[in-house]
Amino acid sequence: MLSDGCSFMKGMLLGGVFCLVLSFLGSFHFSSESSTEDHHHHHIYAPSKDELKRLSDSRVEELKNQVRVYCIIMVQPKTLVYWATVLDTWSKHCDNAVFYTSEGSKALEAVDLNEKDDWARLRKALIHAYENAGDLRWFFVAQPTTFAIIENLKYLILAKDPNEPFYLGNAVKSGELEYVEYSSGIVLSYEALKRLMTMFKDEGQCPERTHTLWKMGEDKQLALCLKYAGVFAENGEDRHGKGLFNKQNVVNMIKQSMQDNPTDVVEGCCPDMAVTYGGMSPNQMHVMMFGVYRLRPYGHDFHDWLTFYPPKDSDND
């Protein structure tokens, strides 16, 4: 009888271990992230000057007015200095910039989501943005260490229809899942966000909280929910194949280019129409604001075909 009891306990232990292993394997991707060249996703380009010239003035004006961006900036009290810096720099160029925090702060204004879990907090922020966007039809999700040039984002999506499901940024692959990296910023069209709202109601395919041992990042969880909604990651890049959404800051990209392309550092480094840089310090953000919006060579006119103005009455550079 004692022997039977021991065998039963061994079976229970082995069965439990087996279930844990299955749970671990079911949420783990064996393949490492591949480079952009290995992707099967679409590549999103900004319209060329020739393409813009073929449009009537009224059509260009219509597109300019249509491309308005709701910025969803995810912050926490422990990142208060980054939060304050984003508030004082690039977020002023959003048509509406809303900060979403894990808990309230007396120092700065934000939507208090009262949520510690990263994925659940992002879901709540997206729901709030969808319900309060008004007539804005493009959504940009960023971390407080991201620096964004909103005018370049608007140029990239100028001719894209927000009533089509767009989900773009720096698209990478992990196993069979293609997703847009959070650290580089995530762009969603109104249709993509609308479909996501429907998926949020499906706890089977898009749960608010995961129960696996291997916790998946919120950018991958977002990609999974969008995938079930028929929305797939797309890579934003220029005509030379350079990514417009960068998870590294400018300094690191230049250093890397000095090693890889010592004879042509600038050409090997950064795209002319970059949308984002990640991993930025507060000081680097202020320097970027000076370089992007203030420093100008006297007497030079870049002859851009169209101009995106910041929101009316906004305190911006």
UniProtKB/TrEMBL annotation:
InterPro entries: C1GALT1/C1GALT1_chp1. It is a single-pass type II membrane protein. It is found in: Membrane. Belongs to the glycosyltransferase 31 family. Beta3-Gal-T subfamily. One of its GO terms (molecular function) is glycoprotein-N-acetylgalactosamine 3-beta-galactosyltransferase activity. Keywords: Membrane, Signal-anchor, Transmembrane, Transmembrane helix. It comes from the Eukaryota. Its main location: membrane. GO terms for biological process: protein O-linked glycosylation. One of its GO terms (cellular component) is membrane. This is C1GALT1-specific chaperone 1.
